[in-house]
Amino acid sequence: YSYATMRLNGEKPIDPESLILPVTTDSTQDIPWVKGFDLVSQEEVSVPFCAVVHPNPYYMPTLFRSSSNGVASGNTLEEAIFYALTELIERDAWSLAEVTRNTGKKLTDLPPKVAEMAAKFTDAGVEVTLRNITSDIGVPTVAAVADDVQMKDPRLLMIGMGTHSNPEIAMIRALSEVAQSRATQIHGAREDATIAQFREMMGYDRVKRMNAYWFKGDEYEPASEIPSCATDDFKTDIEEIVSRLAAAGLDRVIVCDLTDPEIQIPVVRVIVPGLECFTIDNERRGQRCRDAEYRHIRRAKSSA
Q1: Which of 49, 128, 228, 232 is exposed most, by the fewest CB atoms within 10 A?
Q2: Where are the domains of the chain?
């Protein structure tokens, strides 16, 4: 059914336009729908099937390329929802940083565990910098930027992201992602081999120049200055994050339970209409990206 037909039928469908569609997408087309639960309105709603599954079956109509963004598992349903939410917020913050090229301040005075992890990179000849790219939503988001200054291999110019209600865990997750990316790249197991080959053809110096906004900058802040929004349990963490999303104008948080009844390990897809995903699909750029670009341009003009 189309969105209009779903509404006429008395359903409560999510407007496909709110999911940030590519400009070539026909949002009025007939598509399959599935049920989800909105944590904000506390009601069952219908969401496009293609926004829930990954990959979307080739024979099914779709609105955009599917991805695993917002899919997570956990020991409990609440834990799965929490990690799905933090991934969505992470991709949104990363998208805003990319479109504005505002990659935040470099972090100093790292917590002991984080400093210990960073030292292991240094010992291996890898320069790693942590940057605070937390968005207006206020859930700590950290980027770890790594440069193997010994090998000078363009494929090893890496970036890892981490988002968590606890800033220290966000930092650890960012560094862990860089380490994992390096290992899989070195051992030739990365899925994005084509990108790696393209980088190799371009060369180390050119690739680094193209991504200079992640490596340069002389603004610093102590890691301890990133505000925490952590509580002592996942349920309250979710409530805090939902509140912060609402304050940023994002007032729908939809959960689709994907748990296999035989395995019984909680798995969810969480959808927050309006959050950006530009870094994983450059055909989709929404209002938050446009607003961030506008603010960035205005600041640049006022300081010129």
Answers
A1: 232
A2: 3-89+231-294, 101-225
